[in-house]
Amino acid sequence: MKPSTKLSPAEISDRLKGLPGWRLENGAIVRDYQTDGWPTTLMLVNAIGFFAEAADHHPDLAVSWGKVQVKLWTHSADGVTASDMELAKVIEQTALWRPPAGSALRGTTKKFVGS
């Protein structure tokens, strides 16, 4: 399937099973992330921006204190495509990444980013 081919509602539903917290809303896939405050919100937006630019696929972001909403769809396909699903997966992994158990990295003690 070409990345710009619009997915059917059944395909979107099936793929969203692997992306907890994401939902189909008004023809786009959408995810809300809660943060522990403005600095973390900005860090998350910048991280999303880095990966989106590298992928040349750009989400709509709604940014406020303690919250980032991500909305993905492909304008040229007028709907959700495989590209949107792939970028959603990268965003999810980035936003919720924490050092694995046994890592030399201790991780933050703050709430940081959550669902």
Q: What is the H level of CATH, i.e. the homologous superfamily?
A: Transcriptional coactivator/pterin dehydratase
Identify the CATH class: Alpha Beta
Look at the structure and give the mean pLDDT: 93
The description of the largest β-sheet is: 5 strands, antiparallel
Strand content: 15-25%
| Low-confidence sequence ranges | none
Gap between N and C termini, in Å? 30 Å
Characterise this structure.
- 35% of the residues lie in helices and 21% in strands.
- The protein is of the alpha+beta class.
- The chain has one domain (9-97, 109-114): Gyrase A, domain 2.
- Strands 1, 2, 3, 4 and 5 form a five-stranded antiparallel β-sheet that branches.
- The longest helix is centred in the middle third of the chain and has 18 residues, at 38-55.
- The protein is globular, with a radius of gyration of 15 Å.
- The termini are far apart.
